[in-house]
Design a protein that fits this description.
CATH topology of the largest domain: Neuraminidase
Radius of gyration: 25 Å
CATH architecture of the largest domain: 6 Propeller
Structural class: mainly beta
Number of strands: 44
Distance between the termini: 60 Å
CATH class of the largest domain: Mainly Beta
Number of domains: 3
CATH superfamily of the largest domain: Kelch-type beta propeller
Strand content: over 45%
Number of helices: 0
Shape: globular
Length: about 450
């Protein structure tokens, strides 16, 4: 199901489609029989793909009720989206195809050990969710794709991914109740939904995420959230045991369909402009002894009211501290009272009179007594078989413009590893199976023609 050009379209594994101008009154139209699984709107027409490789593989329509069969890419296709002037299709066979017109398709990715269930576009990138290994695939142009395993990887089977309010949200489709959120798609934070529910479809509209599926422990089939982190469950007004497969937003309504052909809808307020801002951009900073000085740029969208401030959060387990940054060209604030060489995680939020944005992707920060370039083990003595965790600090990432192109080379005994410094000029990396005995540690890099080498430190493996 999808909404586009003022029209709702619902498809299924049959010889009919249904369309509606408002999501409540529907009309059926005949189409070539097929296992129609996914539909989206872009470039002036609807495109539908089949969940099997049987002909016809594709349907196209300019109005939602007159459809033409076409020879499309061979399935089994599970989801379809449009963004950056191109269509992106994902399959349960680990395939991703792309098209600029919805008719001629090019294979962009194919690894059969993945089962892609959903694909979304937002914030200048495409995200495809996998239910086989709990991975996501990310692309900034729809042609070149990279595979990521969200951390922590819990063996989740992602059933849906959606973008809204400056944030991607992935929802588990195996009744584990896990939900992951990310601003850019390459760092994910895990959340737990209770009671757990299988989620097979999700959408965003009017400031809210909505997910649908099938509950195994209750009759509350729908979930919703304004932040992507805290969720509420809702019982639907019709068959509560149904397997709801898709949900969309349009014409001031959320509309959901189930596997039996039932359609449910919920009206939202007519004016959805009163929403929270998106997250701050380009969060970076400088490290000092016992404190972190954080800078950021304003969000891409202020929401329904002007941004009136920013909040920076830093945490380590149950420990959390905050600072507030006023509205400024480059908002900044300082969090003090930290312990040197402890690893903290930092996020930032924008605020307007309607509330706080979602947090930015967590970034680690390591306070140090000296700003000089240094590399050392988190623990000076490591037991045999245990990893050595190395902290590289003092890379002059912000004041000399070296980040992010600089590659740091780190030597741990005879082992060489590489990293790129984070926006705070630091690296945190792990070396497995270090050599028994005393291993030297040092790091090197070259920036703007100047070579840098850290002092040598040591770790003892016993």
């Amino acid at each position: 199901m999808n909404y586009g050009d003022g029209q709702w379209v619902a498809i299924g594994h049959s010889a009919d489609v249904a369309d509606s101008p408002d999501g409540s009154t529907w009309t059926e139209y005949p189409v070539p029989a097929g296992s129609w699984q996914s539909v989206t709107y872009g470039n002036g027409h609807f495109v539908a793909l089949s969940s099997t490789s049987a002909s016809p593989e594709e349907l196209v329509s300019t109005n939602g009720h007159n459809w033409t069969a076409a020879t499309g890419p061979a399935g089994p296709w599970t989801a379809l989206t449009f963004g950056e002037g191109r269509f992106e299709a994902v399959s349960s066979a680990g395939q991703i195809d792309t098209s600029t017109n919805g008719m001629q398709w090019t294979e962009a990715w194919h690894h059969s050990n993945y089962d892609f269930t959903s694909v979304a576009y937002g914030n200048g990138r495409f995200i495809a969710a996998d239910s086989a290994q709990g991975a996501v695939s990310i692309s900034t142009n729809g042609v070149n794709w990279s595979l990521l395993f969200p951390a922590p990887n819990t063996g989740t089977k992602w059933g849906a991914v959606v973008y809204g309010e400056g944030e991607f949200v992935a929802l588990d489709g195996s009744s584990s109740g896990y939900i992951a959120t990310s601003v850019y798609g390459n760092v994910w934070t895990l959340h737990q939904l209770s009671p757990a529910e299988e989620i097979d479809g999700a959408t965003f509209g009017c400031g809210s995420f909505v997910g649908v599926g099938q509950s195994t422990v209750s009759t509350e089939n729908f979930i919703s959230s304004t932040s992507g982190t805290a969720w509420t469950t809702t019982a639907v007004p019709i068959d509560t045991t149904s397997n709801w497969t898709a949900v969309g937003y349009g014409a001031h309504r959320f509309v959901a369909v189930d596997a039996s052909g039932n359609i449910a809808w919920s009206r939202t307020i007519a004016n959805c402009s009163a929403i929270i801002p998106t997250s701050p951009q380009q969060v970076s900073g400088n490290i000092h002894s016992g404190k972190v000085w954080t800078y950021m740029h304003p969000p891409s969208s202020a929401g329904g009211a002007p941004v009136n401030g920013y909040r920076v959060n830093i945490s380590k387990g149950t420990f959390t501290k905050q600072c507030s940054a006023p509205v400024y060209f480059e908002p900044n604030c300082i969090i003090a009272g930290l312990v040197n060489h402890q690893v903290y995680w930092l996020t930032a939020q924008s605020h307007n009179r309607f509330g706080y944005s979602v947090p930015t992707d967590p970034e680690f920060v390591i306070p140090v007594a000296s700003l000089s370039f240094n590399a050392m083990a988190s623990e000076p003595v490591v037991s045999q078989g245990g990893p050595v965790v190395v902290q590289v600090t003092g890379v002059r990432a912000n004041n000399e413009g070296i980040y992010p192109i600089t590659t740091i080379t780190v030597h741990v005994g005879a082992t060489i590893v590489y990293c790129h410094p984070n926006p705070f000029g630091e690296c945190l990396l792990t070396v497995s199976n270090p050599t028994i005995g005393t291993d030297s540690i040092y790091a090197t890099y070259t920036g703007y023609g100047t070579s840098y080498q850290s002092p040598t430190s040591y770790v003892r493996v016993v």
